[in-house]
Write the structure tokens for this entry.
Amino acid sequence: MTHRSSIATTVRAALVAASDLRFGLGPRGQVSDLVKVNGAAPTLGYKVRLYRAEDGVCVAQTWSAPGTGVYAIDDLALDATYIPVALDHTGTHKPVAAGPLTPHVGVS
């Protein structure tokens, strides 16, 4: 069993190293926006998935704040653009996409 564990650790380390090379170790940014329902802030939080516009990969997921609709996602590459998609977990509303958004450095 020790042998299998060390192989898994080595593979995980290689994958992390490969992702570091792909996305770089330079400055990182944030996207933030509002989820609105019929023009107003929703009383419930909504799931927000963030897709990289260049290749459609889902890079992050978070929940908007109930009552305000605010969401923010950090640690994003500055040289990419992103498409946020708000999903209603209750099934009342259809998913809604926005953007594209460009990350900014710092907190909004």
